[in-house]
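One record is set out below.
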Amino acid sequence: MKSFVFGLMSLAFLVAAAPVPDPVRDRIIVESRAMNPAGVTFDRTTKSVRTGGGTVTDTVKVERWDGRKWSVLSINGKRPSTNQKTETLKATTSAPVPGYHRMAVLLSGATDRGTDAQGRTVLKIPVLPVGSVRTDTGDISSHLMAEATIAQRTAPGSGQPWVERVKVTAREPFRMNMLIKVQNFEQVSEYRLDANGKPRLVSQTADSSGTMFGFPGGEKTEVTYTYR
């Protein structure tokens, strides 16, 4: 039986119009737009566990972004075959390079504020902007919502806000295509300040469940980013 596959749904934040001005959100958007992925090099390690149809598939994949292009370093601890490289790079290059620079368009959909238990500001995006999340079957952004947790830099005279955490969840059960129905989806992205005080994406976790061909299944994924 074919494995139940959702895959990690990378946040491909594309251009969208901003709602009513918000000074905190707008300062973050300005900073994130200035962060060019061409000036960053990192390794991305993806660990995934897929279940469905009575099978369990574990995969560990290591890729590298060198500021210009992607390469596949290993799959399950081994050098990838030509076919594995081709398939992996096809999926990877179809999505924009991940990073803090993509925060600009995600936050363009923020329409409300809240406060978490630690007193931090939380920007709420009730519906992700069109093109925010794409899969190999299409755009599922309209089915998702998100919350961005804001932190403040502590350096004297700074005061520049930055996004420390983004949580994306499904607004309701939805179909990816005629065969796959998603019952639950959650992705959490964590950001940290680097030595120069710039926010960097450091990890993502994703958990999805639903049915494929009527059989229950899902996928759990952990991604870590190591900057070079």
Remarks:
- The first helix runs from residue 23 to 33.
- The chain has a mean pLDDT of 86.
- The helical segments are 23-33, 82-93, 103-107.
